Amino acid sequence: MLQGVTGSGKTIVYFERVKEILKKKQQVLILLPEIFLTNQFKDRFEEFFGFTPSIWHSKIGIKSKRKIWQGIINNNLKLVIGARSSLLLPFKNLGLIVLDEEHDPSYKQDEGIIYHARDMAIARASFENIPIHLVSAVPSLETFNNIKNKKYNHTILANRYSESPLPEAKVINLQKVVLKKDHFIPNETITMVSEYLKKKEQVLFFLNRRGYAPFLICKKCGFKHLCSNCSIYLTYHKSINKLICHHCGKKVKKDSRCKTGKDLCDFRMYGPGVEKIYEELKIIFPKKNIEIFSSDFLSKKNETESILKKIEKNEVNILVGTQLISKGFNFPKLNCIVVVDADFSGMGYDLRTTEKNIQLYNQLSGRAGRFSKKSTIIYQTITPLNETLKDILENNPEKFLNNELIVRKNKNLPPFSRLIALIISASSSQDSLRAAQEIKKKLSVLSELDVLGPVDSPVFRIKRKFRTRLLLRSKNRDLIQKKVGKIIENLTISKKIKLTVDVDPINFA
SS3 for 163-200, per residue? Predict the structure, then answer.
C-alpha cells in the first residue's frame, strides 16, 4: 500500500517501480478507476517514459482491442493502462500490477458479471506470485484493516511535492446567508472567488448532481415527473430541454398538461444541478470562460481531450464539475474550490456513506494548490456542525479510519463480517417478495448465516422490474460463498424471477 497526501508524488514513486519491472522485460498493468483519467495520465506517462502506452477500456474500438490482445499474447506489448476490464487481459509475463485510487467504488462492476477489480487484482497477483501496489490518499477500510493486521506492507508520503501546503478550508453557514430566489452562491463566496480570478488562477465549483434540477413540481397541480420504468424522479437537463432517468436513460419532454385545466404545468425547479450553477455563474462572471466537467458533456474522446488541454493551458477560468473531476486530475492553476452543497446527511441504507464522503472530499481538496503556496476550499453548508464535515476539516484520515473500524466491529459489519446481497427482480412486487421469502427459507438452514430481509430495495423499481433484497451476513470469511452457492444452484426459480448475487456489495440501492 502506497499512501500519500494528495499532490505528494505517488504517481512518480510507482513510475520508478514500473521502470524497474520494464527493464526486466516483464509486463506491467496500471489500473485506473475512470475512463476519463486515461487521457491526462497517458500524457504524464509519455513525458516520464518517452513512449506511448496502450490504453484499454470499453470505449476503444474493436481494431485497437484486437491489436492490444495480440500484442499481450505475443509478449510484444509490455505495458497497459486500463479500466477494470483490463485485468482480464491474457498477460503471459506479468511482473507488476498497480491499482491507482484503490479506494474508488468505480472498481466494482455491479452489472453483468459482478466483481471488484481491486480484489480480483490482488487475487491475480497472488496466483502469479507477483507484486501489486495499491495507491490512495485515503485507503478503503478493508485495505486499512489489512495494513493494521500486517497483511500488507505500508509506505506513507506525508508531505506534498515541493512542500506546497494543503488548501485552507473555509465554511460558509448558509443558514445565516440571505440568497435570492433560485440562487445558490452567496456574496462571501463570490468575493473570495474573485480574488483568485484576478490573479488569473482557476476556480472549481463542485456539485455532485448532473443536469439542471433534480426534479420539477407544478405550482398549480403538484405534478412531478416520475420515471415510468423506475421508482425515481426524472432530472431536468436544460441543455437538451428534456428530463432524463439516470437509471434507465428514459427521456421525456418537459411540458405536461396541468390537472387544473387546459394549460400546461407551471413548473418550479427544486435543487440545483451543475447546469443551474453554470447558468448562475455566467450571470455573475459574464466575461469569464466557464466550462462544465461532467459525464453528460464529455461523451466523446475528442471533447474530453479538448477540455483537458484548455484547462491545462489556463484557458478556462471557472470549472463546474461533478464527482468525476475529483479523480486524479492534475490542474496546475486550480487554486480555489467551492463545494456548492456540502450536505453529508447521506443515505441511511449505505453503510459506507461516511467513508465515501471522507475519501471524495479528500481527493477533491487535493485538486487545489498543487503548485501554489495559497489555495482555498470553501464548504457551503446548512449543517456546519455535521460530524462528517468535522472529520473532513480535521484532515486526519488515520484517526477517522481507526474510529470507523471500531464502529464496524461493534456493529458486526465489514471488514469484520462478510455480506452477500441477493436482489430478486420480477414484473410484479408480489412475485419478487414471494420469491425472496422462499429463498430465505432455503438459506435459513445455514446456522452460521444471518439472513436479513426481505425488504423492498431503496430504489424498488428499475427498468420496469420490482426489486426485493436479502442481505446475508456471516463471520465465516472463507467458506460461506461455497455453501450459499450450493443452495442457490439447487433452487427452482421461476422464469419470471431474476436473481442477482453480489458478494461484498458496494451499492445498496
Answer: HCCCCEEEEEEHHHCCCCCCCCCCHHHHHHHHHHHHCC
Place of cell 484532515: 395
**3-class DSSP assignment, residue 85:** helix
60 phi-psi bin (left φ>0, alpha ψ -120 to 50, beta other):
beta
Whether omega for the bond prior to residue 454 falls within 30 degrees of 0, making it cis, is yes
CA separation for the pair 40, 44 (Å, rounded):
7
User: What backbone phi and psi angles, to 5 degrees, belong to 195?
Assistant: -60, -40
Which cell numbers in the block locate residue 98?
498497480
Residue 427 to residue 202: CA distance in whole angstroms: 50
Domains in the chain and their CATH numbers? 2-157 (3.40.50.300), 164-211+272-407 (3.40.50.300), 418-503 (3.30.70.600)
pLDDT at 410 (0 to 100): 94
Among candidates 32, 1, 363, which has minimal Cα distance to 155? 1
CA-angle at 469, arms to 235 and 450, nearest 5°? 145
Determine the Cα–Cα distance for residues 355 and 406; give it in Å rounded to an integer: 13
DSSP H/E element including 29: strand 27-31
Which letter, b or e, does each residue of 200-230 get, where b requires 16 or more Cβ atoms within 10 Å of its Cβ? ebbbbbbbbbbbbbbbbbbeeeebebebebb
**How do residues 343-392 score in pLDDT, each as one tens digit?**
876 656 788 888 999 999 998 988 887 778 899 999 999 999 998 899 99
**DSSP state, 93?**
S
Instruction: List, for residues 394-447, the tens digit of each pLDDT value.
Output: 989 999 999 999 999 999 999 999 999 999 999 999 999 999 999 999 999 998
CA-closest candidate to residue 386, choices 179, 140, 174: 174
Q: In what order do the strands lie in the sheet with 242-244?
A: 235-237, 242-244, 251-253
Please state, in angstroms and rounded to a whole number, the distance separating the CA atoms of residues 97 and 18.
9
Euclidean distance between CA atoms 459 and 304, whole angstroms: 31
Give CA–CA dist 387/374, Å, rounded: 26
d(CA 43, CA 303): 16
pLDDT at 68 over 70: yes
414 contacts 473 by C-beta, under 8 angstroms: no
Grid coordinates of 62: 474493436
pLDDT, the chain, mean? 91
3-class DSSP state of 127: helix
Q: Cβ(79)–Cβ(22) under 8 Å?
A: yes
Q: Which of 70, 44, 68, 46 is closest to 56 using CA atoms?
A: 68
